[in-house]
Amino acid sequence: MVLPTANPGVRLVGRKEAPAPGLGSASRLAPPRLAAVAPHRTGRGWFSVAAITLDNYLPMQSTEVKNRTSTGEITSLRLITAVKTPYLPDGRFDLEAYDCLLNMQIQGGAEGVIVGGTTGEGHLMSWDEHIMLIGHTINCFGTRIKVIGNTGSNSTREAVHATEQGFAVGMDAALHINPYYGKTSTEGLISHFEAVLPMGPTIIYNVPSRSGQDISPEIIEAISGYSNMAGVKECVGHERVKCYTDKGITIWSGNDDECHDSRWKYGATGVISVASNLVPGLMYSLMYEGENAVLNEKLLPLMKWLFCQPNPIALNTALAQLGVARPVFRLPYVPLPLEKRIEFVRIVEAIGRENFVGQQEARVLDDDDFVLISRY
């Protein structure tokens, strides 16, 4: 195979070093380096990974930023909120409302936040918006709460680039989902995670109902030896949680309605929660104050209501009804129907308004109160 000489900075690298075409010994460039991607080992043995790479490529890493948070500081967190992203009427971020929500999370006892996750609608953001929101959160709240940026992607290239940027702006850890829609093999999943794990503390997110593919224990065990492997946000259920905790792997429940039992009966460290957007103090109690079946039963109607339609539809509706966020939805999300909005007000009354974020009374919004944005 002959590479075109019009692009002398690019070379094809396999098992052996390949000279860059068009560069003679008199070139002023530094000698070519081996590709950033070394041979990988899978269950079938060693094989070479060919890659088009730039000469003298270096990862965009900062030792100071990367080392500011240890993996152990992440694995000790018990209550992490997958925080909502509020919007202005034109669809841009409402940073004032976002800051208020973050302050309420900190006051309620949340120790970490996932920025731009499923709940925060990271999939509806441009990468510029995504990294800006991570940077804003670090800049304003980084001394009071751990900031975990969702920088996962179904493209390894995008996941690597976004994770580099996230750690460069100061996030404490990254959240990574498995490649969705364009699913890959077990070996491909391991290689995908191995590409991002060297950058900093990392939580793997397993939610087959969204990604279409389970991250099996075989995969988690294969990458569990990495020093940056903080743990797994696991949505499969109690048996999977116990499978990992028995092996000493840190697990956060990804299901609010299972988190109490996962924490106190199956060994989970804590929860990455949607409900804590609304009742952070009660979720803190659920994770820190011992087994409490009464409190768990009290919160179950809220937890089930939050997932009556795909998340974050109900949460967006609830925060609007509490006056914490404007009733603005980026499509394809639309608010819950009227009967569900009425049900939420009754749930608030049953749990106690004082336990919820915000100051306004919960109210039933009319359909005309909501703004749906298709361009932003």
UniProtKB/TrEMBL annotation:
Reaction equations catalysed: L-aspartate 4-semialdehyde + pyruvate = (2S,4S)-4-hydroxy-2,3,4,5-tetrahydrodipicolinate + H2O + H(+)
Family designation: Belongs to the DapA family.
Functional summary from the UniProt entry: Catalyzes the condensation of (S)-aspartate-beta-semialdehyde [(S)-ASA] and pyruvate to 4-hydroxy-tetrahydrodipicolinate (HTPA).
Source organism, top-level taxon: Eukaryota
Pathway: Amino-acid biosynthesis; L-lysine biosynthesis via DAP pathway; (S)-tetrahydrodipicolinate from L-aspartate: step 3/4
GO molecular function: 4-hydroxy-tetrahydrodipicolinate synthase activity
Signal sequence coordinates: none
Coiled coil: none
Name recorded for this polypeptide: 4-hydroxy-tetrahydrodipicolinate synthase
Alphabetic keyword roster: Amino-acid biosynthesis, Diaminopimelate biosynthesis, Lyase, Lysine biosynthesis, Schiff base
Pfam families: DHDPS (PF00701)
A Gene Ontology BP annotation from the UniProt entry: lysine biosynthetic process via diaminopimelate
Highest classification ranks of the organism: Eukaryota, Viridiplantae, Streptophyta, Embryophyta, Tracheophyta
EC number: 4.3.3.7
